[in-house]
Amino acid sequence: MPTHTVLVTGGAGYIGSHACVELLNAGFKVIVVDNLSNSKSESLSRVQQLTGKTLSFYEADIRDKTALTQIFANEKPTTVIHFAGLKAVGESCAQPHLYYHNNVFGTLVLTEVMQEHNVKQLVFSSSATVYGVTELTQYHEELPLGAINPYGRSKAMVEDILRDLAEADIKNKCEYPWKIALLRYFNPIGAHESGLIGEDPNGIPNNLMPYVAQVAIGKLPQLSVFGDDYPTPDGTGIRDYIHVIDLVRGHIKAIDAFNTEKFSDGNCKAYNLGAGRGYSVLEIVNAFENVTGKKINYKISPRREGDLAEYFANPELALKELNWKVEKTLHDMVADTWNWQSKNPQGYK
Ligand code: NAD
Ligand code: UD1
Question: Does domain 5-189+242-274+311-316 match CATH 3.90.1170.50?
Answer without folding.
Answer: no
